[in-house]
Specification:
A: mainly alpha, Arc Repressor Mutant, subunit A, two-stranded antiparallel sheet, 5 helices, B: 854 residues, alpha+beta, 6-stranded mixed barrel, 29 helices, 52% helix, 16% strand
Chain lengths: 107, 854
């Protein structure tokens, strides 16, 4: 498995949580809601594209709504490989977190 | 249409179109549009725009690296290749970098100087709306200009013309005694109206704008001057005595006026005191053209509008429709750069900017020539790059990035050179020390020049090298750009060098000529001592006391440094039979009895002022030119009315050059009038200079204890008349050296290349019986031919250029062919020296070694 940066991890998890409604704007909103970080559109776009190239995401373009100024929207979805990557990530992270709450409680 | 439709602003939209990846542009731009529109509706235009820019700026690094992912990898490769090439061919790299570094540093130094010259008086907030009133009048076929106007003009203009918002008069007098307690200095005092502070941007450190110069007994002092007089005490309210009798209190302290301003002076007092201080100049006199008048135009008014109203303004004032003196405006920012009616420092700015460009071009040509001549060494690399898929555009990019790298390396050296030379050169160009040559504003300019140089130098090699056909070069078939074009470039380089050299030689001749030409009066051993009212009050005893020294033979009170040009001139002269339309204008020198003897002037007719004739203090002496211009037969003894005063013409002086040699001898009148005497000119014997000076000082102290004793020798004063020309001669000398040096560097490189290329040929020739001399001639023949052609091109251009420059002089040294031939010989000799190293090396080499070599 390729190493994923933190922002890539956030993006994968956001797409998982958003389900059918995952595209750039909603992903950005989601990350902002959880972390409080307001990231630039293009800052999200670049890792999104990398994840697609790695095969973790599939994309589909939706034709623009029939009104002036409407644009096509690019939706993202987790692929099987993407889900496997999330599993792996979770497994690794959980092992790192073992015992943490006990220490926190004893303090 | 959707009422909530807000498209992206066009600039941002274009920027995004360029930045965003093409394949997803549609959807991405949609997100920006949505975000922009939402914020626009909720919070308005400004926040939405700010949001858009923060979006773009935050993502710029990401976007750029995404856009150029492929290119950055190749760029890295280009840089590595370039650095390896620089390392492998150290000699050529040295020639290229040294040439570019010297060329760039020249260019940067000149740029700094030009920037300083152009910055004069631009720092005022109203700089573009401020003008100075000037007058002009027809004089024969051309127009004469003057920048001084009568004192009542300022107030009259302000009330008469609605376009003029404010006006202020300004005048400075040097050498006025200023006292504060026991502290005494002679200062340059500025006389101005309070409005000066609303016209110009002169920030106050203490005191307020309202009180400045508004009370007649208030003064404004600069920060530095305040420090000088009061130390750390609070200057406000302190009482100072100016010109021995007038008392003022300090109303405000202003920041020092920057040196790049026309208003440079440490103390300002109200204009009304001018009459009391100078003893001359009636503040209400419409005929006294002596003072600067600055006007501030309304924002809506233009110079042309006001000029048209001013054209007949003086006719109305003087009630004289025949009057030919015209009033007009000169923009503040042009005062320093342009002389009235042409000329001025702008000429030198243009000359030196052109030289800077040419020197940089010479350096670029070195790079072009060497890169194309030696292209064979790169041929394989280019062929291979093409074979593995580089297209021509990529190769052009490669070579341009290579030349950019070189010019950047050169910039580092150039900056070092600039750092070392900026101070001495600033002194040479008379840039005051406190003005800042460097500031952050020059960095983009420096970078711009560097990039331009890199692109220019790299353009031709990039085109030539990228055109190689892989099949040919990989097979070993060599081609190296057009040799003809290379010849043209070398000839151009040498033409520029020869042009500068001829220019330098001719300019030096002219400067020798004007500094050595006999001026028609004696300037040796004449000491000028400034007069003051203490001395003028007791002038006769002072004079006889001075004369007791045996070394002192003659002395004369006068208004001028003779030879420096007239201080005064007048058009109000009348004689019997004068054509009233005649625009006769006389320069004036005020002088007393022994003036002619002091300066060893010769009379053409009549006599000079004499103590034996009581009436002489109303009589006049003219020079020959004036008599000729009047056109009167038997002029001696005719009556002249002069500024309302009547007198007789008692003598005619032979012409002498009382002005710098840029001007012809003009009509001149000598008048006796103690009011205008400013100096005492004393002729001292050659043997007793120190003793006589000591005597003068002692007598001066005795008669005028208050004033510090000062003196100047006339020949020192006159030695500074041609400073501008002498400075440019000196600068030109450096530039000729540099241009020649860079050209020779290039020639050296080319010679070594030719020698290398013809190594085998010369070897065979020697085996077949050619002599060393014969081979030397063979190798250097072409270069000699180029230099000769360059000379033929440069000579006529230099002739025209110098002739144009000489037009600013009334007296010109003849342009002799010697200078041209000398320049030709020098250029040829230097070129031969340069190439002879390689030519001799090859000519003397053992053919056996040479032929084995390949």
């Amino acid at each position: 498995m390729k190493e994923l940066t933190l922002i890539e991890q956030y993006i994968l998890l956001s797409i998982f949580q958003l389900g059918e409604n995952a595209y750039l704007v909603t992903i950005r909103e989601h990350i902002k809601n959880i972390t409080g970080k307001d990231m630039a559109i293009a800052t999200i776009y670049v890792p999104l594209e990398r994840l697609s190239r790695l095969g973790y995401l599939s994309t589909r373009m939706v034709k623009p709504a029939p009104r002036v100024g409407g644009r096509a929207i690019k939706y993202y979805r987790l692929t099987r490989a993407g889900i496997r990557a999330l599993d792996e990530m979770k497994r690794i992270q959980e092992r790192f977190w073992i015992g943490y709450s006990k220490i926190a409680a004893s303090d | 249409m959707d009422t909530n439709h807000f498209p992206l602003p066009p600039i941002e939209r274009r920027l995004l179109r360029w930045l965003l990846p093409r394949n997803d542009f549609e959807s991405l731009i949609g997100y920006y549009e949505t975000g922009y529109r939402d914020i626009r509706i909720q919070r308005g235009r400004r926040p939405s725009r700010r949001w858009l820019w923060s979006q773009i700026l935050k993502a710029v690094p990401t976007l750029i690296s995404m856009k150029f992912r492929g290119e950055t990898i190749m760029l890295k490769n280009y840089l590595i290749t370039a650095l390896r090439n620089i390392k492998r061919h150290k000699g050529y790299s040295f020639i290229n970098i040294a040439g570019l570094a010297i060329g760039t540093s020249c260019c940067l130094l000149i740029l700094l100087w030009v920037r300083h010259e152009l910055s004069f008086d631009r720092f005022h907030e109203n700089a573009d709306s401020i003008h100075r009133t000037v007058i002009s009048w027809p004089h024969g076929s051309d127009t004469r200009w003057h920048w001084r106007t009568p004192p009542p003009l300022a107030a009259a203009l302000k009330s008469d013309l609605p376009e003029i918002r404010d006006t202020s008069r300004f005048y400075t007098v040097e050498g006025i005694l200023v006292e504060y307690g026991e502290t005494r200095f002679k200062e340059e005092i500025g006389f101005s109206d309070p409005e000066l502070f609303s016209l110009f941007t002169l920030p106050l450190r203490r005191g307020t704008q309202e009180v400045v110069l508004s009370s007649p007994q208030s003064l404004v002092i600069s920060t530095t001057a305040a420090q000088k007089y009061f130390g750390d005490d609070d200057p406000l309210g302190k009482v100072m005595v100016i010109d021995d009798s007038l008392t003022f209190h300090v109303a405000a302290v202003m920041e020092d006026i920057p040196s790049n301003s026309m208003l440079h002076c440490p103390i300002l007092i109200p204009f009304v005191h001018l009459e009391a201080v100078t003893g001359a100049g009636n503040v209400q006199d419409w005929g006294d053209f002596g003072y600067n008048t600055y006007v501030l135009l309304e924002k809506s008014a233009t110079k042309a509008q006001v000029d048209s109203k001013l054209r007949d303004y003086l006719d109305v004032i003087w009630e004289d429709p025949e009057n030919e003196v015209t009033l007009s405006l000169q923009p503040l920012t042009e005062i320093h750069l342009y002389g009235l009616g042409g000329g001025g420092p702008i000429v030198y700015i243009w000359i030196f900017s052109a030289i800077a460009v040419f020197i940089l071009l010479i350096a670029c040509i070195n790079f072009m020539n060497l890169a194309t001549a030696r292209s064979a060494t790169r041929a394989r690399e280019i062929g291979l790059r093409k074979v593995v898929g580089a297209d021509r555009r990529k190769l052009v990019c490669q070579f341009l990035s290579e030349s950019l790298l070189l010019s950047l390396i050169a910039l580092i050296f150039a900056l070092t050179i600039v750092g070392l030379l900026a101070i001495p050169l600033a002194n040479l160009a008379q840039v005051p020390e406190q003005s800042r040559l460097f500031d952050l504003g020059v960095i983009p300019l420096f970078l711009f020049i560097t990039i331009l140089t890199g692109l220019l130098a790299g353009s031709y090699p990039a085109l030539v090298l990228s055109a190689f056909r892989p099949v040919e070069v990989l097979k070993g078939y060599k081609r190296s750009g057009s040799p003809l074009f290379r010849k043209v470039l070398v000839v151009f380089q040498f033409s520029v060098s020869v042009f500068l050299l001829v220019g330098l030689l001719l300019i030096s001749r002219q400067i020798d000529y004007i500094t050595q030409k006999s001026l028609g009066f004696s300037q040796d051993q004449v000491v000028y001592v400034p007069l003051n009212e203490e001395l003028l009050r007791r002038y006769d005893p002072f004079r006889s006391e001075l004369l007791r020294n045996l070394g002192i033979s003659f002395m004369a009170a006068t208004s001028n440094y003779v030879g420096q040009g007239p201080r005064w001139s007048t058009g109000s002269v009348n004689w019997e039979g004068k054509d009233p339309k005649d625009g006769f204008n006389l320069s004036m020198i005020y002088a007393d009895y022994d003036f002619a003897d002091t300066f060893e002037l010769e009379m053409a007719a009549g006599r000079f002022f004499s103590r034996d004739f009581e009436a002489d203090n109303r009589n006049f002496v003219l020079n020959e030119t004036a008599v000729r211009a009047m056109g009167v037969e038997n002029p001696l003894g005719i009556g002249l009315t002069f500024a309302g005063q009547e007198g007789r013409l008692i003598g005619i002086l032979k012409d002498f050059n009382f002005s710098p040699l840029r001007d012809d001898v003009r009509p001149l009148v000598l008048v006796m009038d103690p009011q205008y005497y400013r100096y005492l000119a004393i002729k001292i014997g050659p043997q007793q200079v120190p003793a006589s000076l000591a005597h003068i000082e002692r007598v001066f102290k005795q008669f005028s204890p208050k004033y510090p004793f000062e003196y100047r020798f006339l020949d020192d004063v006159l030695g500074q008349l041609y400073l501008a020309e002498q400075r440019s001669q000196q600068l030109l000398r450096y530039f000729v050296l540099l241009a020649g040096f860079i050209s020779c560097l290039g020639l050296f490189g080319l010679a070594s290349f030719t020698a290398e290329k013809r190594t085998k040929e010369t070897g065979i020739r020697k085996v077949l019986g050619a002599t060393e001399a014969g081979i030397f001639v063979l190798l250097s023949r072409n270069f000699v031919r180029w230099v000769l052609v360059a000379n033929l091109i440069a000579w006529p251009l230099a002739y025209l250029g110098v002739r144009w420059w000489l037009q600013s002089f009334a007296y010109r040294a003849p342009m002799s062919w010697v200078s041209f031939v000398l320049a030709g010989l020098i250029s040829l000799a230097v070129a031969m020296l340069t190439i002879s190293y390689h030519a001799i090396r090859i000519a003397r080499a053992n053919p056996a070694h040479i032929l084995k070599y390949e």
